[in-house]
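Internal tracking record. Fields below are filled automatically when a chain is submitted to the structure queue. Please do not edit lines marked as system-generated. If the sequence contains nonstandard residues, flag them in the REMARKS field before resubmitting.
Queue: standard
Priority: normal
Entity type: single polypeptide chain
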Amino acid sequence: MQIHAIILAGGDGNRFGGELPKQFIRLAGEPILLRTLRQLHGARIERLVVVAHPRWLDETRRLIDEARLPMDVVVVPGGVTRNESTRNGLAALGGADED
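SYSTEM-GENERATED OUTPUT FOLLOWS
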């Protein structure tokens, strides 16, 4: 059995009220998304999928690539709704039924 995780980071920042989506806002000097990824690294996750807003895919990939995290992270586009984004993330996991 493998352990998988999905991070739903597909918001556009409307409710947060900033120019950037909140996953890119810096908290203690680091974007919130990277802080989340670093915390998950210690959980022995074999496959990690980040669901990003379609307009922010390049920025999300660049942020993750530049961080040189010691784990594989797949970035996929989110949907129109949170449910669609979740479905996209689950589809990208490619896990077995027991995972």
